[in-house]
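--- STAGE predict ---
source: upstream dedup step, 1 unique chain passed
mode: sequence only
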Amino acid sequence: MLNNTIKVNYEVAKSPYKAKQLLDKISKYSHIAWDLETSVKYTDEEIEHWNNLIESDSLTKLERIHYQSKINATALMHPSHCRVTHCSIATSQDTGYVFIFNNISVQNIVFNYLMSSKQTQILHNASYDLKFTEYFTGRYPDIIEDTEVLAKTIINHVEIQKARTRLKDLAGHMYGDWGISSDYFTYKEMNNPKVIKYAATDACATMWLWNYLQEQCDILDKEIYENACNY
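--- STAGE serialize ---
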């Protein structure tokens, strides 16, 4: 990692008590950025069992489709195939909080907080994260901003390579290459320090990007106003 990249500091909550403590700190800010990490909820043993099942001639077509959908499931698919492993929340570009959902109580506490908070909540590619909160809570946050949509609107370039708006494309020069292998996004790895740091960096990078895009919008507004006056 380059010397001039932002160093992310973060705290971790694994218990309901610690989760409530950290959320109390977070509640004092007007804007927060957050991000979810997910994994397939099926075990290797279950997948092996289903692979053996579909080789049998005793299954109906619908049963075969049912088991095949589970075997082929990834963490990017419908939430019914997945579990949420982490929620990272940032209050600044270098301060994050990572909640590890190793029990349903921590998940409920964090999701209930996010769905009831009146803070501005910033996400990158919100449609991904919100499909999970909607699936598990039936609700959405009150005030949502999406940095990917905003970045796409500002860049608005016809060349694909110049219109890339992945978080790591836009904030990688500030945080370095913080990506990790997809092998880490499993239930077994949810306590791995690499995964926790990755989650914290995602949220902080989203907050940095939001602040940067706001500055760019202010510059554009000024230019548009000055051009209008000159015209």
